Amino acid sequence: MRILPLLVLLLLGCGGEATAPELPETDLSQAAIIPLPYKVTATNSAFLLDEGILMKIQAKPNGPSGELENFISLLGEQLAEQGITRAETGRSLQLILEAPNSPMAHSDWYQLDIEEEAITLRANSQAGLSSGSQTLLQLLALRGENNYLATGTIEDHARFVHRGFMLDVSRHFFGLETVKKIIDYLAFYKINRLHLHLSDDQGWRLEIKSFPNLTEHGGSTEVGGGPGGFYTQAEYRELVEYARIRQIMVIPEFDMPGHTNAALASYPDLNCDGKARELYTGTEVGFSSFCIHSEFTYHFVDSLIREVAAITTGSFIHIGGDEVHTLSAEDYAYFIERVAGIVQDYGKQVMGWDEIAQADLPPGSVAQYWNFAENAQAAVAQDVQVLFSPATRAYLDMKYDSTTELGLAWAAYIELEDAYDWDPVGMVEGVEEQHIIGVEAPLWAETIEELADIEYLLFPRLAAIAEVGWTSAGRKDWSDFKGRAKAHSDWWSSRDINYYPSPNLEAEAD
Ligand code: TNX
Q1: 149 to 30, 290, 315, 489: CA distances (angstroms)
Q2: Nearest alpha carbon, ligand 1 atom 4
Q3: In testing the pocket of ligand 1, which one of 195, 285, 369, 410 has its CB within 8 Å of the most ligand atoms?
Q4: Residue-wise burial string across 147-180, b where 16 or more C-beta atoms lie within 10 A, e elsewhere
Q5: Of 304, 282, 300, 280, which is closest to residue 291 (Cα–Cα)?
Q6: Among candidates 487, 480, 485, 424, which has minimal Cα distance to 458?
Q7: Pick from 75-84, 220-229, 407-416, 418-427: least confident
Q8: Closest ligand 1 atom to Cα of 371
Q9: % helix / strand / coil in the chain, to the nearest 5?
Q10: Residue 88's pLDDT is what?
Q11: Which atom of ligand 1 is nearest to the CA of 200?
Q12: Which DSSP category does 423 fall into?
């Protein structure tokens, strides 16, 4: 990650007013920020948000880069959405960018000072700057009818570097606009990694120029027999860039050697018997596999990883590796080790579901714990970091309760409290804080077809997972969280977000 020392100052200068307005008394420590910041100090006054603000952006030498310009223009748009519009005259809101000299060690560190006359945001990385701006945007979004912000200081940093969300675009395909909307939601909750599950038995969703039939044929359907779809490489680049500007790393996943029916249907030579499989629109898992001892398989994987690495700005490529019920342990490990080597050859780090820890992995790999504790332990034994996505807590495709229409229930029912009230440390014996890269909430798409379905399973649980990943364990508190989540649900309503009205949200905070 780039460490670029930065300071952003937002100054509000009042011009032409004869008498100072009376300022309301406030309490910043009561703000409903999710995830909960590390430290909030209230100074009980107010920063007024009057109309007609003149926004000036000033870049000092050494401060800004091209990267920063993107960020500033994005922040300008987001402030405008919150009613902070630029005017030709009147009060001014000024952004001054410069480089502070004391870099802080924590991931995503920022400090937000809100005073009567100025808002100052300090950070020592682009990521911290982005996180701090999301806090400011939440304060604006949650201000309701008030035309002011509470004053005080927020000092904040993330507990884990990886705070992720996974979207399965294979079982059902979701277009660019839907995914961009989700990226906006992720940024708002300081989730910084979007893992896209781009291939499975039911569909191949990214154009691969050296194997065009993957999308021509393999992308032509989905669960239930709908039309499917895929991203061209140009569209995918657009998505990666949209996310990158919002400090979100896109992690592409091509699940293999199992969960590969769409590829097996598109290229007969990937099958040991040389016969193309039929397209699949059901929801069973575990039946498909590449031909492990055929060199064509590795020629295919090499071309795939080469093309994907070239359009991936993040450091990881996810190779799946889950639920292969048709292979011996030996063949499985042989395949994973060869494919991990290919990923390494193209300069990327390997990520995979926890099963990959049964193979010898290159340094810097990450095993995503979803179901098997012994695999998480095997990862730690070979110094491979563990990403926590326990199906019983973090799988957002699980139903809330027995009456939920969307979703599955094989792992658990997951109410808001279940999604909130857990900690990755202590969940698997021997897997400690230093072995854990972070947490990720996967959304598998067997039962969901459109944005409203996604929103229903995401909200409010995404907010809970965001807090598990960001907030230090000692600061987390369920009864406090549910009060803040209730405030956010009002905001979701105002944005027409189709959230699940969890009974947890209605319960009195005690
Ligand atoms: C298990 S999680 C799977 C997916 C399914 C999911 C449904 C994992 C690595 N494999 O193929 O979509 O359950 O909840």
Answers
A1: 12, 57, 38, 20
A2: 444
A3: 285
A4: ebbbbbbbbbbbbbbbbbbbbbbbbbbbeeeebe
A5: 300
A6: 485
A7: 75-84
A8: 2
A9: 35, 20, 45
A10: 72
A11: 11
A12: -
Q: What separation, in Å, do the N-terminal and C-terminal C-alpha atoms of the chain show?
A: 40
Taking only the tens place, the pLDDT of each residue in 304-348 is 999 999 999 999 999 999 988 889 999 999 999 999 999 999 999
CB 222, CB 450: distance < 8 Å: no
User: Quick one: tokens of 70?
Assistant: 């993107």
Residue 337 Cβ contacting ligand 1 at under 6 Å: no
- Which protein residue has the closest C-alpha to ligand 1 atom 6? 444
Please name the helix (run of DSSP H) or strand (run of DSSP E) that holds residue 484, with its range, or none.
helix 478-494
Question: Strand, coil or helix: what is 93?
Answer: strand
- Left (φ > 0), alpha (ψ -120 to 50) or beta: where does 320 sit? left
Gap between the Cα atoms of 442 and 371, Å rounded: 13
Best residue among 322, 368, 404 to mutate for probing ligand 1, ranked by most atoms within 8 Å of CB: 322
Q: How far is it, in rounded angstroms, from Cα 25 to Cα 46? A: 7
How many CB atoms are closer than 10 A to CB 14?
Answer: 14
Residue 393 alpha carbon to ligand 1 centre in Å? 14
3-state class (DSSP) for residue 110: strand
Does the C-beta of 369 come closer than 6 Å to ligand 1?
no
Catalytic residue numbers, as ranges: 323
CA of 391 to the centre of ligand 1 (A): 9
